[in-house]
Amino acid sequence: MAIPQKDDDQQTQNPPAVGWTGRIEQHYRRIKENAETYPYVWSSYIVVYGGFGLWFAYRWRKLRRTEDRVRVLQERLRKLAESEESTSSAAAKSDKASPPAYKAPN
């Protein structure tokens, strides 16, 4: 009887996975074989998901810039409101301290 050679070849190519490192290496080999077998599928994945990644990075950066601009504008508005409040409160204090310009006749 002849012993099938295919089983022997498979065992030499893919030794049994020992522990989690062996499983990771085996999984990596399967992915690598698949990528070599179907290069157009994998390249399309890279193009599509790479495009999504670029779009996401662009939108994220734009959002951060917008938030920074809003923070600067809010700070300027807060300083302006404080300065107006201090000038109006100073003017109100000076009006209360000074006697009225009109005096009633006796």
Descriptive labels:
106 residues, rod-shaped, mainly alpha, 0% strand, 3 helices
Write the layout of secondary structure elements.
Blueprint: H1 5-13, H2 19-37, H3 39-97
Task: Characterise the protein shown here.
The protein has helices at 5-13, 19-37, 39-97. The chain has a domain at 24-89. The model has no long low-confidence stretch (mean pLDDT 82). It is rod-shaped. The protein has 106 residues and is mostly helical. The chain is 82% helix and 0% strand. Residues 1-21, 80-106 are annotated as: Disordered. Residues 86-106 have a biased composition (Low complexity). Keywords: Membrane, Transmembrane, Transmembrane helix. This is ATP synthase gamma chain like.
What would a concise description of this structure say?
Residues 86-106 have a biased composition (Low complexity). By secondary structure, this protein is mostly helical.
What radius of gyration results from the CA coordinates? 38 Å
Give the proportion of residues in helices. over 70%
Question: What's the β-strand tally?
Answer: 0
The number of helical segments is 3
Biggest sheet record: none
SSE topology string = HHH
Instruction: Categorize the overall geometry.
Output: rod-shaped
Tell me the span between the first and last alpha carbons. Answer: 140 Å
Structural class: mainly alpha
Low-confidence stretches: none
Average pLDDT score = 82
Q: Kindly report the oligomeric state of this protein.
A: single chain
- Proportion of beta-strand residues: under 5%
Protein name: ATP synthase gamma chain like
Keywords: Membrane, Transmembrane, Transmembrane helix
